[in-house]
Every structure is written in C-alpha cells, then in structure tokens.
Amino acid sequence: MRRTLRTLAAALILGTGLAAPAFAADVTLLNVSYDPTRELYQDFNTAFAKYWKAKTGDNVSVRQSHGGSGKQARSVIDGLEADVVTLALAWDVDALHQNGKLIPADWQKRLAHNASPYTSTIVFLVRKGNPKAIKDWNDLVKPGVEVITPNPKTSGGARWNYLAAWAYATKQPGGSDASAKDFVKKLYGNVKVLDSGARGSTTTFVERGIGDVLIAWENEAYLAVKELGPDKFEIVTPSLSILAEPPVSVVDKVVDKRGTRAVATAYLEYLYSTEGQEIAAQNYYRPVDAKVAAKYAKTFAPVKLFTIDAEFGGWDKAQKAHFADGGLFDQISVR
Amino acid sequence: MAGATALHAKADHAARFESRSATREPTWVKWTLIGVSLTFFALFLLMPLIAVFVEALRKGWDTYLAALVEPDALSAIRLTLIAAAIAVPLNLVFGVSAAWAITKFNFRGKHFLITLIDLPFSVSPVVAGLIYVLLFGAQGWFGPWLAEHDLKVIFAVPGIVLATVFVTFPFIARELIPLMQAQGKEEEEAAVVLGANGWQTFWYVTLPNIKWGLLYGVILTNARAMGEFGAVSVVSGHIRGLTNTMPLHVEILYNEYQFAASFAVASLLALLALVTLCIKTWIEHQAGRDS
C-alpha cells in the first residue's frame, strides 16, 4: 500500500514536471470599463485571445466589468483588481494616479493618441420621423422638448454631453460664458430623467419610451438603432460636437503584483492594430488609424469636432469649473 | 410577520364573527373589501409576475434554457447559492442565540441589543455595502493590511457573503423574539428543576416550541439572501463570471438588450419566491394544526 502511494506520488511529481512545458499557461486579465463598451470588448477579447494564443501559445481569458465611468474608477481605487482600465474620459483614469498612486502621472503618454485607441462623439437619438424636428443643440432648449441624458456627476458620457452643449453655446454669435450657462440651464431644465450611467439613459429612452431626444455617445446611438430596429429611431448629428477620447491604461500596481504586465500591455497595444481598429469601427467607435478610418468613413457622419483641450483647457480645468461640488453644474441645477 | 401561529388564531375569530348576525358585516361591505383587495393583488402582484414569465418565454423554450445554462448565468446562480448557503446557517445560529438571550435572561442593554438587531432593516442596503467598502477597501481601515496578506474581501466572494449576512441579519431573531416572549420561560424552568441541563432544555423544550417560527425565519432569510441587490451591487465589482449574483446578472442582461435572457434569469428568482410562498403557507398550516 505504502509503495503504491509512493509510486503514485512520484508519478504525479514527474507528471506535472514533464507536462508543464507542454501545456500552455492560462492567464486571466480583468478589464474594468465603462458602460457602452460591452459589445466592443466582447468582440475584441475573443480576437485578442486568438492573437495571443497564436503568438505565445498561452490561453488568455479577459473578464469584464462595466458601469458608469466614475463609479468604475472608484471601484479600482477601492481595490477592484483591474489589470487594465478602459474608461470614458481621462479625468477618471487620472483619479487612479491621484488616489492611491496606482499608475504614474504620465500614463497618457505611454500609448499613442493620448492613450485613446478609438474616439467617439456626442449625437442625438430621436424617435422615428423626428416629430419634434430636432436638428441641432438649440432645438433641445425649446419649451416642450423632453431631453434624456445621464447625470454628469456620475457618468463620463454625461460630462461629454454637457461640455458639448456648453461649447456650442459659446460658439454662437454673441456667445459668452454667461450665455452658455443660461443655455445649459435651460437644457437641463428640459431633462426628464437623469440616470446614473449612459446605458441607463439609453434604456430609459428606448425601452421605457420616455423623452423626445436622447443625448448619447455616437456608438451607443448606433447600437440602439441596430439592436432595437431602424424603424423606431433616427440619429441626428448636430452641427458641432465634441471629440470624445476614451483613454486606456495598464494599472501598474496590479499588473506588477499579478505578473501580468506583458500580456496587459499587449492587450492595449492590440487595440491599435488593424484588427483592433476594425473591431472598434464595427462597434461604431471612430478608429484612430487613418487607413481603417478611411475604410469606414461612410459609417460616420461628418461633423465639426472640437477637443476638450482647445475649448476647456483640459479635463482638470473642466472638471474643477463645471463638475466639482459647487461648480457650474451644481449652480444650474439649483432651481 | 410575527408568528405564523397568530394568523390561525385570527382565522377562528373571523369564523366566530361571521356566525353571528350582530357582528356580521353587510354582504356588500364584505364583497367590496374582498373585491378591492383582489383587484389590488392582481394588478400589483400577479400581473408583474405573469409579465416576467411571458417575457422570459417570448423567444421560446430554447432561448430560455440557453440563457440559464450559459456560463455567466451558471456562475451567477452558483454564487447566489453559495452566499445563501453561508448566510442562512450563520444567521440561524445568531438568531436563535440572540432571541434566547433576549427572552430568557435579564441583562443591561437588552433594549439596545434589540435596536441593534433591527439596524439592517432601517439602514439602506447601499449604505450597508459602503460600510464594507470603507472597512475593507484598498483605501479603507483594513485595506493595507489585507493587501499585504494578499486577502481579498470586497470585489470578491467574501464581500458578497458579508453584505448578504448583514442585510439578512434580523429576520430569524425578529421572528423568534415575540414568539419566545409570548411563550415565557415557565417550561424551561420546569425542565431545569427536573434536572435537565442547558442543552437538553433547548433541544427538548425550547426547540419544539419554536420550530415553526424558526423555519419561517429561515425561509425569509433565504429569500432575501438570494434576492438582495443593493448591498451586493456595491461590493461586487461586477466582474462577469466571478462576482455577479443572480439579481446583478439580471440587470446586466437587461442593459445589454438581452431582454429574453434577462427575464429568464429573473423568472428563476420569481420561481424561488413562489416556492418560498408555498413553503410558508405549508408552515402556517402545520403550525395551525400543532396549536
């Protein structure tokens, strides 16, 4: 009996010793992302696993967590072990540096295009036939138009929405900060439901049938039309909108602890590859790669885009002026 | 919800009132009341319940079953069962000992203890979740120590179990305290006088007296443990296939436009509620017969 046990033990040790190199390593990554990227990363994770398997022989499975961008950043700061974050705006990724020093200050310089492998913009989703004749931002402040947009305090997308409206107002003839403040105040006066995340707003508009117009991410609007039928909704592209750059980053503290830096970095770099860019474009994100962008040029309506750096002097400034406690958004919300 | 037995005593009262013309309500009052409550029941409880099943089966049985055996759904079901399997026994032990201590002994701070037991009822589940983030989060009190020892509490299974235990804390104790108070301690005193030790007293005297109330408490605890959304949502981190419970999985599917799948998982939860209801009725029936 004892001998059999010993043989068994030896066989096991030998077995594992011999077998280890033959079997591929299994790696898991956790990608903590914002709300509307669910479909994008579902496709991308499969593609990356295939690519990584072919390149290194390792099996990589990427787990996903989705939610409002600000909330997701908070979770990572509180200890959610994300190998990579792919959030809605730079401010939320910056929070990982500000609180807990999870990433270095210059994280946005580590990857091309401000660490944003795809961009998007803000458009309007209206009901079929556009019954309220909504063409541009100034139609949203008309009396009787019900607007759906998430809360800028919790949602990244909502902050892009708000800033796009603000910039539009300052660019009108005779526009100033004062007239812009008045404009967004009227706009948010028309808001029926202020959900906490972009996807919540979309379901409020398309599923519950509340409101005349949804201010949404371009990709979110296209997806809603695709999922729920072009016979029900129309996309309206305003004359002017904001260039939204959702950035990505490896979370240094986590990957160094888990030993996943190489695969996590490769994961993000693969977003910039031709295949990664194609997947982004197929999910209605605007690719940054010129060739892929040209190929999908017909998908995206031409729209005059401005950047947050040019109009607002970067996220840090915009955040402090508009969304901090007692900031402009709080001031216009007081009724 | 106090006491399954109380309900049956009331049923006897009702029969007595009905039998005498002096205490009998006019027929139209009786039927209006019954009509109103039945309409209310159909509108607010029955219809949504039916809607869940109709939506779940909208795309047929195949989609329904596929939604339930999909890996993420299975993992959510598994996690929900694990959380309930830990929370229910823990609260069972706690609930019985708390009720025992409160009803059979006199001590200082007894009322304070009763208030504390009720705390999870009065605190919003979101706050309950945040408490654990503040304690065990990376920036929280014990965060650095936990990180050093490579222990994960929140955004992992232990956090979900903790949150579940917290919100289901009062059910059993709350069920037992009034019951044991009503029964008094004469029977236990008699047992002790006759030479029974503490354990025998509990096992042969107290437990048979409280068994239906206890079972009822367990069922309520279980139902809440499986259905809890708020507190668990805060500590979950929403990692698919890892830290999503059934209620969280329902929300995710709904937000992904997978309505049929979402309602399929929701229908499982609704089924659980129905089973709970059946067991509850059965317990009330048994308790009524016993008394």
Helix-strand layout with pairing:
The complex is a heterodimer of chains A (335) and B (291).
Chain A: H1 2-22, E1 26-34, H2 38-56, E2 59-67, H3 69-77, E3 84-86, H4 90-98, H5 112-115, E4 118-119, E5 122-127, E6 147-148, H6 156-170, H7 177-189, E7 191-193, H8 198-206, E8 213-217, H9 218-228, E9 233-236, E10 240-242, E11 248-250, H10 252-258, H11 261-270, H12 274-282, E12 286-287, H13 290-295, E13 304-306, H14 308-312, H15 315-323, H16 328-333
Parallel strand pairs in A: 1-2, 1-3, 6-7, 6-8, 10-13
Antiparallel strand pairs in A: 3-11, 4-12, 5-8, 5-9
Chain B: H1 4-19, H2 27-56, H3 60-69, H4 71-104, H5 110-122, H6 125-136, H7 143-148, H8 157-168, H9 170-183, H10 186-193, H11 198-227, H12 230-236, H13 246-255, H14 259-290
What does this structure look like?
The complex is a heterodimer of chains A (335) and B (291). Chain A is globular. Chain A has helices at residues 2-22, 38-56, 69-77, 90-98, 112-115, 156-170, 177-189, 198-206, 218-228, 252-258, 261-270, 274-282, 290-295, 308-312, 315-323, 328-333, and strands at residues 26-34, 59-67, 84-86, 118-119, 122-127, 147-148, 191-193, 213-217, 233-236, 240-242, 248-250, 286-287, 304-306. Mean pLDDT of chain A is 89; it is low at 8-22. Helices cover 48% and strands 16% of the residues of chain A. In chain A, helix 2 (38-56) links the parallel strand 1 (26-34) and strand 2. In chain A, the strands form four sheets. In chain A, strands 7-6-8-5-9 form a five-stranded mixed sheet. Chain A has a four-stranded mixed sheet with strand order 2-1-3-11. Chain A is of the alpha/beta class. In chain A, helix 6 crosses helix 7 (177-189). By secondary structure, chain B is mainly alpha-helical. Helices cover 80% and strands 0% of the residues of chain B. Chain B contains 14 helices and no strands. Chain B is flat, with a radius of gyration of 23 Å. Chain B starts with a helix and ends with a helix. Chain A binds chain B through residues 30, 35, 38-39, 63-67, 75, 77-81, 99-100, 199-200, 203, 227-228, and chain B through 133, 136-140, 143, 147, 152, 154-155, 237-242, 252, 254-257.
